[in-house]
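tool_call: predict_structure(chain=1)
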Amino acid sequence: MLANRRGRRVRRLWKCKTGRSARARMPARGRPPASASGFGRARRGRRRARQAWPKILALVVVELVAEVVAEVRGRNSRPKLPAETPGRNSRPKLPAETPGRNSRPKFLDRNPWPKVAGTSGGSGRRRGAVNVRCCAPANGVVMPPARSMLLSAACAALLSGLALAPAPVSAAAPAPAAAQAAEDAELRALADRLLAQNAPAGAPGIAVLVARGDRVLYRGARGLAEVELGVPLSPDQVFRIGSVTKQFAAAGLLKLVEAGKVGLDDPLSKYVKDYPNGDAIRVRQLLDHTSGVKSYTGIDGYMHESIKRELNTRELIAVFKDLPADFAPGQDFRYNNSGYVLLGAVIEAASGRPWHEYLRETLLQPLGLEHTRYGDVRSLIPGMVAGYARRDGAVLPMAFLDMSQPHAAGALVSTLDDLWRWNRALHGGRVLSAQHYREMTTAHGKARHGEYGYGYGIGRMPMHGRLTYAHGGGIFGFASYLLYEPTSATTVAVLSNDESGAPGGIGLEAIARQLGAMAMGAPYPPARAVPVDAAALASAEGVYRLDPQRAWALRADAGSLAVQRIGGGAAQRLTPVAADTFVYPDGIARLRLERDGAGKVAAMRYFADGEGESERSARSEEPLPAR
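tool_result:
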């Protein structure tokens, strides 16, 4: 029936292309036409016939291939007839001495099948390298010999092609899949180990999410959400994210740039009328910390009492606007929070709404970031965890902070899942145009440090030799770190309800980078200590100065060195891994000593990523400060 139906289709195509009566109008062979017009009609008929042949042949080939593919797919699933009922699928068993289908040698025999008599649907003729019955219709219709021969040839060509073709990708998939599963298990083990080391039981905790593309590789938490009640921390809960807020504010402002309401080279005075030197400060300089504006969070004593007051935008700007600038606009880079308060003021002036309402309507709601919002202390926030601080090793409730004061520099709250969604949207082209995304993620001018530096609300940082976009946050009661590695689309989000991050541990940034490097398939090597000569360690003791504001003290400490920033910060004991090379407790950063021709230590180099770019601090003649 199937073959008859296809035959009718071929005949219909022939009639459509040539005309039913074309042959009747053609002159008899060897006899001139009755008229010139009759001969013209016959010639046109032959031309139509020639034009129709390619389409007819194409249809036949398509039908042949379709039948071959259907037969190849269904050969193993076709039900077998009872043994006592001979049929097309029940070819008599071959003699034992004759090679059959399952005993054919590995090379392709030209004609391995003997002449078999009595086979249903066959005439006992010798078969070729491929059994003709594989091309028989399943409905039992016997095909004409010519059609059977065509199908046999097509089937042989297809099967020989399949035999010579390389194995499908899925055949090799189990090995990579197994290797990937092993790497994912190793990452989960590392995450569990880092949480156990940095979030002690009975204390505030840490929540971590690691994802590659749209697949979450790890999502977990350790510690307490409320220490007083013993409530365990969950990866679903809401945290203050501090300065990670800045990338939301920067993206929101760039949306106004795309809408033509703000220009990156507009003077600040266009939006904040009475700001001193506002004509010289450009909007882009607020975004990348090159404006020179004094940071109000660095004012002596301000963070103790004044930070508790509720202030509107104008009142908050009044706190710092008359302070002397750190430098002329565009002449240097210095991270500060006042610039992002001014940026919030620009957003409010251009949009006509409070900065956080504008972000909610423009970014947060359209992207489905349901738990990311302004952290108003005068409203209940479902899922919000309690924040904590530490004083002399003791865990204490965090000090009060009115969230009107962090403003666009750090007043948002969020969750692990929302930060992952944000990373996918921002770096996946769903927030900004390609032009303004490049503008945001590129370090400009004085904000650039080699290949790395600071873009607009986001840092460009190395991670085991690869570029990452990252930012940390620290605010009363909380710490955060958000990282994105573009080549593998890896996101790592780390949140803590302890403002010191990971007290006594390696810190949230190091946790994020360790996990990020593992997720992208290039983990940092473990630091294995080697013995170091005591005299070599003693010769390295001294003060090393990077610039007039920053210096470090190096001291010998139990077979290694300890480094401490002068003027603040705890001492960190380093691990010696080679002569004059030491690894920091985070397992990533390295310190390398430089010696002069006489063997005296002349400088130390700090490698934040363990390799690549470094900061050189020259040895100073200053005496070591008292411990």
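agent: The chain has a mean pLDDT of 81. Proceeding to next step.
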